[in-house]
Amino acid sequence: MSDRTSAPSTQPLLQPVQLGALKLPNRVVMAPMTRSRADNEELAPTALHATYYAQRAGAGLIISEGTWVSTDAIGFINVPGIYTDAQTAGWTKVTEAVHSAGGRIISQIGHVGAVSHPDHLGGRLPAGPSAINPQEMSFTPDGPKDTVTPRALTAADIATTIDTYRQAAANALRAGFDGLEIHAQASHLVAQFLNPRLNQRTDAYGGSSEKRAQFLFDVVDAVSSVWGSDRIGVKLSPYWRREPAFTADAEMLTDYDLLLKRLSDTDLAYLHLVGPEPDTGTDDTFTAFTRYRAHYRGAVIANLGFTQASGNELLERQLAEAVSFGAPFIANPDLVDRFTHGHPLAAGNRDTYYAGDAAGYTDYPAVTGSY
C-alpha cells in the first residue's frame, strides 16, 4: 500500500476541493461505470461490489454505477437497482466498505425511458416523453435488440416516475451514501425530455426549451426534498451524438447553454459535464469546457477521455473543479497513488468490462512496494 501521509503534490488533481457539502481530499473522481456484475434475480449489489468500490477508495469521490430507480427504468442486463430493500441492503455494505477504507461515495440514479425494450419489462412497452422510437440499441438478456416505438408517458406517469426518483434518493440516504447524482446524460430518460426530436409534447413538459427541461427540474426538486441540494449533482452530456435522435447541433447546444444558466440557481453541489468525443470534429475539449464555464457559475466535474496531463491542465485553466476518470479506474484501483508517484497505468481487459465475475473486476492489483 502507498503512504498517503506523504507531502501533497503540486499537481492540481491532487489538491483538496469542496463541492457543496462534499469535502474531497483530491480532485480525482471515479466516474460512474456500468460493469454488469449484479447477476442475481434481485439486481442487488453483492460482496463483490463492496470489494470493487473499496479498492478504489483513494479517489477524491466515487460515483456509483448508474442504478435503476424502478423496474420501469431497467434497460441493460445485470445492472443493480436502488428501489428495493434487498438492493438498499446491498448498497449499505458497499458504502460501509468504502467508508472503512477512507473513501467517499455517492449514488447515481437513473431511468432509461424509451431506450429500454419489452424484454426488460415483462413484455410491456417502454415509455418516453413521446411515442417516438429513439432508434437505439438495448442490451437485453438475449443480446442487443433494436428499440421499439414507446408509449408516451401520461401526466400521471410522469408524477409517478418523479416519485420513484424521490424514493430512490431516500433509499440512497438510508444506504449511507454521501450524496446523490442524477443521471441526465447520453440517451436516457432525462436527456430524452431535453431533446426536441424525442420530446414533442404540448403540455408542461414540452414545446419549448424551458418546458423540455421541466422534468429534470422536477426530479431535482424531488430528490432535494430528501437530500440537501449541496449533496446533489447532475450529470449532463450536451455534446452526446447518437444518430438520428441525438446530434449536438447548434440548436441543441444553445438549449444546454440555457439549461446551465438555470441550473446555476439551484445550489447543487456540482454539475458533472461530459465534453465532446475526441474524434467528432466538434469543438475541442477545452473549448467545450470554456463554453460550460460561461453559462454555469457553480462547481464542475469534467468528464470524457482525460489523462493525468490534460486533467491537470484543465484544472490549471480553472475550467473545472475536479476531473472524473472512467476506464483508468478499472485496471488501476490505486489511480490516485499512481498519479502521485508517477507510476504507469495498467491497461484494462475490455472483454470483462460488462461481463464476468471477479475476473477483470476486483483482480487488478495495486502497485506494490515502497515509494
UniProtKB/TrEMBL annotation:
Domain NADH:flavin oxidoreductase/NADH oxidase N-terminal intervals: 13-344
One of the Pfam families matching this protein, by short name: Oxidored_FMN
Gene3D superfamilies documented for this protein: Aldolase class I
Protein name: Alkene reductase
Organism of derivation: Streptomyces rugosispiralis
